[in-house]
Amino acid sequence: MIEAALRRPVSTIVATIAFSAVGLFSLFKLPLSLLPAIERPRLVINAKAASSSRDELLHDVTVPLERRLALVPGIASIESETSDGEATITLESTWQSDPDRLRVDVARRIEGASAIPLDELTVDVLGSDAQPVIEVAVTGGSGASRSTIAQRVVVPELARIDGAGRIEVSGASPLRLVVQPRAADLAARGLTAADVEERLRTVGRPIAAGRVREGASVRPLVVLQPVRSADELRRVLVRDVPLGEVADVSLREVVDETAFRSVVGAGASPAQAAGAAASTLNKASESGVLIRVHRAPGANAVALARAVRARVSELASRAGDTRVRIVDDRSREVSRALGELALSALLGILLGTLVLRFMLGRWRPTLALSVVIPAALLSSFAVFLVANVSLDVISLAGLALATGLLVDNSIVVLESIESARARGERDAVLRGTKQIVVAVVASSVTLVVVFAPLLYLRGLARALFGEQAIAVIASVAASLVFSLALTPVLAARGAAETKPRSPGLAAYREWLERALANPRRTALIAAIVLIVTIASGALLPRELFARGASRRVVAELRFARDLDPLAARAQGEAIWRRALAALDANDVEAMSMQRRAGGEGELDVELKSATKTTEAVHKLREALRVAGVNARVRIRTSAFVEGIGGDSDQIEVIASATTDRDAASLASRITSAMQHVGFALHDDDENRARTAVTLRWNEQLLAANAISRATIERELRAATSDSDVGQSDVTGSEPSIRLLPVAPRNVSTLPVRIGDRIVPLSAVAGVTIAARAPRVRHDQSRPAQRLVFDRTNADRNPASIIDRIALSRGERVRVAGHARELGDAFAQMRLAFVLVLVLLYLTIAAFYESLLLPLLVMAAIPFAAGGAFAALLITGQSLNVMSLIGLIFLGGIVVNHTIVLIDRAEQLRAAGADEEDAIRAAAAERYRPVIMTTATAILGMIPLAILGGDGAELRRAIAIAVTGGLVAATICTLIVIPLLHRALEPLRRRGRRAEVAGELAMAVAP
Amino acid sequence: MKPSSLFLILCAVLLAACHNDDVDREPNATPVRTEVAKRSEFAPTIALIGVVRASETVPVVALKAGSIVYAQRFAGGLRTGESVRAGEVIAEIRNDQSEFATRQSRLEMDAASADFDRSKRSYDLGVVSSAEYSTFKVRAQLARERFAASQRDATRQTIVAPRAGRVVVMQPVANGVEVAAGAKLADVASGGVPIVESAVAAADRDQLRPGLVVRLTHGAWKGEGKIAEVASVIDTAGTARVVITMTKGDAPPPGTGVDAEVELERRPDVLSVPEDALVAGSEGPALFIVGAAEGWRNTFAVKRVDVETGGRAGGRVEVRGGLRDGDRVVVTGVDALSEGTSIVESESKS
Questions:
Q1: Residues A748 and A829 in one domain
Q2: Which site among A267, A284, A470, B130 is 20 to 30 Å from A574 CA-CA?
Q3: Is the predicted ipTM greater than 0.90, yes or no?
Q4: Around Cβ A772, how many Cβ atoms within 10 Å?
Q5: Is B286 on the interface with A (CB under 8 A)?
């Protein structure tokens, strides 16, 4: 190939340009997203049967469904939660399952599984990311107009966008006709709430009444009595009594428990004095309707956000007195992170080029080398397109990592050509290239070997590292081809006339001499450094993803359960006011709070600068210490890190056993063990067991009056629940009429019908307060309890504590959420490390026909790991998925350096040089390429490590690990490896049958 | 300085620049509000629903069966609260049969009277006998009586207000509806202090006795009364009739439903807690009480104690057992607690 390339230089250059052009074309075709399509779809099956109790549902719905769903392929876990009137089964699939196939499978299985008639059965597929891609707020105008715009215009428009998944709406308060029956008046008029409900169901609804013949045509006959005002509804007769006499009827904004408030761009104006900060925030604060748009599984977040932005700006122009705007666009993170990554890579290329210029002394050879980088990068985009890899943080990080390496092969080739020229050899270009071809191919193959096992990982690790592996393999393979074809061609054109510089060569020689003179002392120092640095790895905290500087603070709020919607909203307002008062308006970029159904909420603060984050967390923690609201204030790292790994500070443990009682006892054992080592119990199922109002029917009385329990229970439900009944035709209001529970909400006085009389409920039932768990949980079809611990004060590995809990028969403990992903990812990575080491050994052994040489080559790896650990520890980083990628990557690079050095030493030995001379000469000769490749690699990493911006924490972890490891490994390569080479010489001489390296040297020798 | 050392220093500086600031982690004690349990006066209450009735009411009854035709003033049907004068025509009952009977008796009367006139002239001329004349006379008299009777019957078809007062309608009867003889259209309430008629569940009857104070509400209206009578008989619907007399406040119109809260025996030394403080215990209701101090900024661990509860009043519930005087009970924020959770007292109400 080399000869062919040298013979046809124009073809070689044209081929390079063609490859790059194809790559460039592919680049514009590649999908853009923050992360590779890492999907672990969750299916949520929700069965509603208002008239069934928790236990009925459990036996007739949950258990049969669970039994059938267990047979669906691709399901990793089944969890269920059954409460009165509602059963929810959550299926977690394995990574990268196809959500559509799952949905079809599940739908087929659950058909007809329920033993009782259900009001509603839904199957929802949720993607991995819990956070929405983009949030749209509708503010201004009245609550009713906001809600109308949001629900009738904005939501349908957004739902139509390609790639839009679940859309949540909170804070809507639509105008509605509301009916609230009064207990005493119902009783006085001989009515019950069920009578009102029954009558209202038909109000305003068209009723088909057959067909009429008129002349030649037959027309449908419809009875239509629209309700056009509250007065009309008051006049509706309920068993001859006008509704207005027994119920309050009004047209008003109906508040549900969800709420949304936001303040955006507070304190932006410089005129606002610091003293008026709090009031400024207050003034800018407004309520509205929040629409959160999630990504459909597999959809492109950036494209979705772009489409939503376009649609919103279009809607904003015709929103009337309300304002429709984007309050949070998490896809900006994606674009910014990708931009920063590209910038880092470019800076890396620039810095590397400058180093080359410095070392080579002239621009022409520098550019001849540098041209390989874009050519290799562009060519790898073509591979991306074929391998269906998207442009995301992971694949780009792989490319950014590889950038530092792409030029390595060319450097080595150029160096070799230079050396050949310096020796005055004929055909210096061809000979110089041939001399190094084994080393170059070996080092590239080792890199490929290091990354190839990552393609065989499972789960999250595969999803994350697979792309990285493809990126590195593709770009390194391209750079190998270019370095062997393009570099010699450019060198032959006179580009390789360099004025080489070897900074520090004299110092290095001095150090090497000292080391070789004092082998024991050097070995001792090396061993101590190695042990200390490797041990420092144990001190590193472990997490799935690095948490970095962030401008976002989030307070996860849990309000008291069972709160009346109005009280809940008032509580949310109080929290909002306290948060406003606590924060300095000048620091806040945007702020929003939403309260979701079910008593949970979120206060999201985006600060202007990351330096204020810690302060804001402290202030908010103080401010939100409010009884009745549990606020967890923390820094929010990037949305997608939370999306994949969940909240790293929460440890979710699911304890299951054969009976409820056993599960509870296991849960309490786990709780005490975890609390003993400092984990705070954040949430548990047992704790959810609140007091419930329980009724016991006076069955004799019911029997004496010939009343069935079903009838009276129906009356009770009508009296106690919110329901949508009938339709109104009031301009600007929601069509459905809301029937509220009977006032006052005192169960014992609820009117029920006994014979022809209306009596208070207490006459037919004993009313008491009793303890009762509102929901029953199952895990893998077994009774279970869910415990959520807070890692706040504990640095212990939760898995080790849980492992120590003695389990009796039938008891099972499962760690879910972030902790499980962490455990899985690390287990996979351990496997990958072992595989990498074995494959490295085998590859090098095969290349050099020696079983001992690979050990020498791989000796740099522990030093690299030690250096990486030490660097991570010094910089306060953790051992996470990204730093692990860095470690694997290091394995590939440091081996290259050693190969380049040892290869030369072996060649010299084969040429008949003395061991001492050979190692010294090889070290001196290879010092420059090693330092050059190290410097280009490190300078390529430095922008990754120090540039801020979104996603910086991810890049930083890799860059720091690689930088630290490279520095340590280079020192090791230059000092320790020659020492080891010499020390192993007697051993190798004995064991060696054939002088493999010598043969290699002979083959390329003139 | 040598370039290699410079390089190393540069690397070290750059690495140090990457140091991550971690937010210091402080223990996350749950903020709650507490209350010291102490014995105080407590009066449990029983909630009832009742209806306001005038002390004297006279029913407005349709004496005959037929279809109702209201007077013009009441064309839309009778409504509770409308005032009427004594004798004011409220409605008429249209009954075809009685109209036919009146017409028939008038015709019969006219025929009998014509016959009698004819027989009188014949008798005067000596054509008919005295006996025959007497027979016609009796027939004519009988027909007149019949007609008078049918006329009297027709007057009963007009419904008039028996007394001046306000109309109370329980079951409205719409215009044109057929009613049976004796059907009650409304009551006319007049004079006297209104009463509230209520019913108490048989199980609660023993707790009520005449003289207990009752707080009455209807929307924004508030009044007060006393129990005047608790029936000793339990009806088939499982309730006993309770009569409450008004002592304070203007009564809402008769027929209005009111919520009544009966204050039971007031006792001076009762431990009570807010109902929101109750959580589920092992056997029944429980409370979280503040336990040992944890030595970090006023944090304490909480303990769950099972309690026995009694009567309820105004959002509070009596604790009969399990709680001691002086215990600090967590009253707000119990949702977030479990045995041993650290808590800190929050300074302000949410």
A1: no
A2: A267
A3: no
A4: 14
A5: yes
pLDDT of residue A266: 45
Same domain, A70 and A188: no
Closest alpha carbon within chain A to B345: A627
Q: Which residue type sits at A483?
A: S
- CA–CA gap between residue A688 and residue A686 (Å, rounded): 5
What is the rounded end-to-end Cα distance, in angstroms, of chain A?
19
Pick B20's closest partner by Cβ from A769, A773, A876: A876
Reported as a single tens digit per residue, the pLDDT across A182-195 is 999 999 888 999 99
- Helix/strand/coil percentages in chain A, nearest 5: 55, 20, 25
> Is A2 an 8 Å CB contact of chain B?
no
Looking at the predicted structure, is the pLDDT value of residue A268 above 50?
A: no
Q: The domain B49-53+191-259 is classified under which CATH number: 3.40.1080.10, 2.30.30.240, 2.40.30.170, 2.60.40.420? A: 2.40.30.170
**Residue A680 half-sphere exposure, CB side, CA atoms within 13 Å?**
19
B268 alpha-carbon distance from chain centroid: 31
Tell me the HSE value of A66 on the side-chain side, using a 13 A CA sphere.
24
What are the tokens at A677?
């080592």
Give the tens place of pLDDT for each residue, B264-313: 888 888 999 988 888 877 677 889 998 877 665 677 888 888 888 888 88
Task: Copy the structure tokens of residue A339.
Answer: 């931009």
3-state secondary structure of B32: strand
Whether A30 and A46 map to the same domain: the answer is: no
Range of the domain at A110: 40-126
- Do A957 and A886 contact (CB within 8 A), yes or no? yes
Residue A838 maps to which CATH number?
1.20.1640.10
* Cβ pair A769:B23 closer than 8 A: no
| In contact, B280 and A771? CB cutoff 8 Å | yes
Cα torsion at A236, A239, A241, A247 (round to 10°)? -70
Contact criterion met (CB < 8 Å) for B340 and A675? yes
Q: Tens digits of per-residue pLDDT, A759-788? A: 888 888 888 777 677 778 888 888 888 888
Fold of B30-44+268-345: 2.40.420
Q: Are residues A21 and A49 in the same domain?
A: no
Q: Global pTM? A: 0.69
Q: How many domains does chain A have?
A: 3
Q: Please tell me if residue B291 touches chain A, with a CB cutoff of 8 Å.
A: no
> Domain spanning B96-155: which CATH class is it, in words?
mainly alpha
CA distance A530 to A541: 20
